[in-house]
Design goal:
The protein is 46% helix and 14% strand. The chain is built from 15 helices and 12 strands. A hairpin with a 4-residue loop joins strand 7 and strand 8.
Length: 490
């Protein structure tokens, strides 16, 4: 008996055979098997330069893992070890961020997973260069547990100026001052100032002096003038218009040694070095592009040291300001003896009118943030803080100049010539310090007017008037408007 063919069953059987055939074929060449996959929670990773950024990947390949590779920014692919044949595997890929990379620089990592059926899948992660450190509370930086800060040369030079000032103090008291002693201390003859320093050092002040001042024998002339004037002082000759000698400071009864124009040698030399050496080195050397510009080495450490050249150069600029490491605004009175030279005078003007200037904190934060930015290779912040330092350090000199103009005005009103000449000598020296910034707001013509006319016609303090002093003050406040609100409180 012949049974009729059921067409529906026949059709299903044919399709079933075809499906089995297809499945058999796919077992041979991988087609029809689920494709491989990569999953990860690390699509965007951040780490500091020179450190490793970990990217955790979960691999899945039903036909078995064949290979895994990664390409950075479209470069040559690098094979990553995998368990060949495994269907799943967890892999951590550690990407070392180049030590020379800058903060915020990004790297694109393209991963490719291939299974044993030659099917592939891709996954892309982005690595961003983040911070190695945050800005610290104090000016203290370390690497591998040891300090990376050193500015011993700057401390030596500040010590030298202190000891030169002591020698000049003898002249103020009527002692003879030796020109040769001052020259030896300035050039640090024999490593001990010709036997006049209480310490030894291979540094000196002369070779760090502003080059035009060296050419003009600025300090050598002051040394010679001070030594010559001291012969008058030693004889008890009282200074007068046109005659160098001693003049009494009325408030204390102490004497000071002045030249024929009434200028005090101790102040012109001490504060002169604060400008021509300390400010010059900060402004024209260590904050310059040659020392802290973007192209300065900031990866490799100086041979035998724990700092990069760029780090060290910023530290040296900090050393010429030389504040306590935790300097801030306001600074407690019981710790006033811990600042000196420029940090001392920053503190002098810092808290006037309820801290309106706040120079201590502004400058300290700029130094700390610049140093941290250098560690992080954050060039934008580093350069912003360099600009802040130029501006704020210049403002300190202008503010202190106004401070001493105010003192001179008070002394003139009281008829105290000795006190007036003492503070006017300081005002003259701080005005002179404004010359040294390459980014100064005030012009050389304005400074010449202040120093050689407003402070006394023909540069002679005996000719000084309240009108001239107020003119100088007005010029400074106009050029530095931050001083306007505090001009009478400084």
């Amino acid at each position: 008996m012949i049974y009729p063919i059921n067409k529906q069953i026949y059709t299903l059987t044919i399709w079933g055979l075809l499906a089995l055939f297809t499945l058999a074929c796919s077992d041979d060449d991988g087609e029809g098997i689920d494709p491989p996959g990569i999953t990860s929670g690390d699509m965007q990773v951040e780490a500091g330069r020179g450190t490793e950024a970990a990217i955790n990947l979960a691999l899945n390949a039903p036909s078995g893992i064949e290979s895994l590779s990664v390409s950075v920014d479209g470069g040559t692919a690098e094979d990553i070890p995998v368990n060949t044949g495994a269907t799943t595997q967890s892999v951590t890929y550690n990407y070392t961020i180049p030590a020379a990379s800058t903060l915020g620089e990004q790297f694109t990592l393209a991963f490719t997973l291939t299974d044993q059926g030659s099917q592939t899948t891709n996954y892309t992660a982005t690595v961003t260069t983040g911070k190695l450190i945050e800005t610290p509370a104090t000016y203290e930086f370390t690497r591998d547990g040891a300090s990376s800060v050193f500015y011993g040369g700057q401390k030596d030079r500040l010590d030298m100026v202190e000891e030169i000032k002591s020698v000049l103090g003898g002249g103020d008291a009527g002692d003879l001052v030796s020109e040769q002693v001052l020259l030896d201390m300035y050039a640090n003859t024999g490593g001990n100032g010709g036997g006049n320093f209480t310490f030894t050092s291979d540094r000196q002040l002369k070779d760090k002096t502003f080059a035009p001042d060296l050419d003009d024998n600025f300090f050598e002339d002051l040394f010679a003038g001070g030594a010559a004037a001291s012969t008058n002082g030693n004889k008890g000759i009282t200074a007068s218009n046109g005659t160098a000698g001693l003049i009494v400071r009325e408030n204390s009864g102490n004497t000071i040694l002045v030249d024929e124009n009434g200028r005090e040698f101790t102040q012109l030399i001490e504060k002169g070095m604060m400008g021509s050496v300390f400010y010059n080195q900060i402004f024209n050397v260590y904050l310059s592009d040659d020392r802290t510009g973007d192209e300065v080495e900031n990866v490799e450490l100086v041979d035998g040291e724990n700092y990069t050249p760029m780090e060290h150069h910023l530290d040296e600029a900090f050393g010429y300001w030389d504040p306590p490491l935790d300097f801030t605004s306001p600074w407690p009175e019981e710790r006033e003896d811990e600042d000196r030279f420029w940090s001392h005078y920053s503190n002098t003007v810092d808290n006037v009118s309820n801290g309106m200037l706040g120079t201590n904190e502004t400058i300290m934060n700029a130094y700390k943030e610049a140093r941290a930015a250098i560690v992080n290779n954050d060039l934008t912040t580093k350069n912003e803080m360099r600009d802040e330092l130029y501006e704020s350090l210049e403002l300190v000199a202008a503010a202190v100049c106004v401070h001493y103009i105010n003192g001179t005005l008070s002394s003139l009103d009281a008829g105290n010539t000795g006190e007036a000449f003492h503070t006017l000598s300081e005002a003259w020296a701080f005005a002179n310090a404004l010359r040294y910034s390459p980014n100064k707001k005030i012009t050389l013509e304005q400074l010449e007017q202040i120093m050689e006319t407003d402070f006394g016609a023909d540069g002679n303090f005996w000719n000084v008037t309240s009108m001239g002093l107020n003119a100088a003050k007005t010029t400074l406040v106009t050029v530095y408007p931050d001083l306007d609100a505090v001009k009478d409180d400084l």
